[in-house]
Amino acid sequence: MPIQILPEEVASQIAAGEVVERPASVVKELIENALDAGADQITILVREAGKRLIEVVDNGAGIPAKELSLAVHRHATSKLLDAADLFRVSTLGFRGEALASIGSVSQLSLLSRVQREDMGAGVRVEGGEIKPITQLGMPPGTTVRVEHLFYNVPARLKFLKTDRTEKRQINDVVSRYGLANPGVRLKLFQDEKLVFQTSGSGDTREVISTVYGVGTARKMLEVLYEDHVLKVNGFISPPGLTRSNRREILFFVNRRPVKDPALSKALTQAYHTLLMKGRFPMAVLFLELPPEKVDVNVHPTKAEVRFEQKGDIFRSVGRAVRRALLAHTPVPEVGNLGGVNLWGGPAPDHSDVQRRTDLAWEMLEDAKQEGSLSGPVEYHQVPVGVGTPILRLIGQVAATYLIAEGPDGLYLIDQHAAHERILFEQFLSNRDKNVPSQILLESIVVEFPPGAADLVNEHLVLLGELGFDLESFGPGAYVIRAVPALLGGSSPEAILRAAVEDLEVDETPLEKNHEQKIIARVCKRAAVKAGQLLSPEESKQLLLDLEACQSPRTCPHGRPTMIHLSVDLLERKFGRTGPG
User: Fold this and answer.
1) Residue 343's pLDDT is what?
2) Could you say which of 103, 130, 135, 567 is the most buried, measured as most Cβ atoms within 10 Å of its Cβ?
């Protein structure tokens, strides 16, 4: 095939693919334009997950009628004058591509009026073709209507996710710009239903309460830090408030939402030794630095940035977070499942023993990492599918592992993994008979972000089958009246959030294996934790329950519950066999 210049229409659609990935991309670009225009009120209306309609109305400065046609041309912008301005960008948008890209893959209407003009004007773009300008009456500001997104590129429509996922993506975009701009009043309607709203009061914690709930907002710790280059402020979660993934670690650079694995790593390293493995903090952190110190022109969607002094920035973020944790986080209370023993009764006070055990365990782990403990540790992982022998409890080590004697040597049992397996099998055995529920003495109200709330509402039947009794209690809020009886000693809010987290990350239909994934996640959250002292009676019961399991050798996620130190191995280690 000979080399040829692509038609303008095709070139525009190719360029649009870099900017407009999905409906949420359109919402993002239009919100940025409204913010750059100085709007303090923005209303977003979405229908059919953005495929049928996305409308953004703002009260910003507006566009003069004579410039409307120019505004929908590619690389038409009022935010740059020359190439040097690219290295000191202080606005959210700057390339002049958004409206042209959106217009090439949709039917776009741009209506605007500036304060000094008596009438507004409108222009329509269909598949990249610009129609004549018309005059109309409207209040000052700008309205952008994007209809039938990707109508002329059906292949793009085919690759969109489910409506539920696309709606959640839009919710995430709007909530992030709400967090970054607490002084702006934002409203989001999905299919005529108000799903998100901020007051525009300027209080970031108030917006956090709208996004994550009042209870979460109250627990968040404030971060305030400043050095000669960087200012860091925002909120982070205490070690007791975590998530199973990094989705709720949010960074904003000069009020621009960005994704940066290195920043995320700096944050999580500041929590070193404070979080369980596989748990992540929540964070809403704002980094402010001179525009010339950061390059925002490194990604088509402006989601990534490059720092001039990368190492210094990351160290400062870690230092800011660590200082906030040390300043605000009290010494955690130690106890079994919130002050209640695993099998009932008040928890004994082992706080002093626990602190000394934790310290010794951290020193041991540090020594391993530094290489001061040399020589291989030889052990046998018990084969999967083999039953558990009758075990005699000897004791507990490091408040994490049970030591037991079997007929053929010693067994080390991971108490957390073992309890996960026990709860999981008990859950499944009750699943076919309807999981029994335990009614709470006092109902608990739990608030979810808009996307998660939609998931809860959509899967109320499934959650009911798992033993939850939930009732809607206003936008994004649900009352928990009962929980699965097997998990009655755990935090009702924590186990419900664990179930919803698994719904959020899964795109498959609710088949049986999916239900088991949710059950496994809930059991992981409810199981006895590493570092938790157990009484001899609790430890013995744990061993008895593990022996009764059909698959006692691994937890539901595949980790081994025990390792075996055979008599033969012990004799060899003590030099009781072999020559001499």
Assistant:
1) 44
2) 103
* 3 state DSSP class of 429: helix
Are 250 and 172 found together in one domain?
Answer: no
Quick check: is 213 in a domain? Answer: no
Q: Is the pLDDT of residue 11 over 80?
A: no
Question: Is the residue at 56 inside a domain?
Answer: yes
What CATH number has the domain bearing residue 153?
3.30.565.10
Write the CATH number for 380: 3.30.1540.20
Reported pTM: 0.69
Pair (190, 233) in one structural domain: no
Same domain, 83 and 119: yes
CA distance 284 to 304: 17
Residue 384 lies in domain: 372-580
Do 174 and 180 form a contact (C-beta atoms < 8 A)? Answer: no
Q: Which of 404, 464, 420 is nearest to 555 (CA)?
A: 420
Instruction: Give the CA count within 13 Å in the CB-facing half-sphere of 450.
Output: 25
The one-letter amino acid at 133: I
Which amino acid belongs to residue 460? L
pLDDT digits (tens, 9 = 90+) for 196-226: 999 999 999 999 999 988 888 999 999 999 9
Q: Tell me the pLDDT band of 340, cut-offs 50, 70 and 90.
A: very low
CB atoms within 10 A of CB 56: 22
Strand, coil or helix: 259? coil
Q: Which residues of 224-261 are buried (b: 16+ CB within 10 A; e: fewer)?
A: ebeeeebebbbbbbbbebbbbebebbbbbbbebbbebe
For residue 493, the tally of other CB atoms under 10 A from its CB is 17
C-alpha 556/C-alpha 563 separation (Å) is 17
CATH code at 237?
3.30.230.10
Whether residue 556 is contained in a domain is answered as yes
314 and 380 assigned to the same domain: no
Q: In this structure, are residues 199 and 56 in contact, taking their beta carbons and an 8 Å threshold?
A: no
Interval 423-438 mean pLDDT = 78
**Measured over all CA atoms, what is the biggest interatomic distance in the chain, rounded to whole angstroms?**
105
How many independent structural domains does the chain possess? 3
Q: What are the start-end ranges of the H helices in 432-511?
A: 450-458, 460-465, 492-505
Across the range 552-569, mean pLDDT stands at: 85
Same domain, residue pair 154 and 227: no
- Count CB atoms within 10 A of the CB of residue 370: 8
Length of the chain (residues): 580
Sign of the alpha-carbon torsion through 362, 363, 366, 368 = negative
The residues pairing with 134 across neighbouring beta strands, listed in sequence order, are: 122
pLDDT-derived band at 358, boundaries 50, 70, 90: very low
CA dihedral defined by 543, 548, 553, 557, rounded to 10 degrees? -100
Rounded CA gap, 206 and 209, in Å?
A: 5
In sequence order, the β-bridge partners of residue 391 are none
Statement to judge: residues 527 and 473 lie in one domain = yes
Pick the last residue of a domain from 145, 165, 200: 200
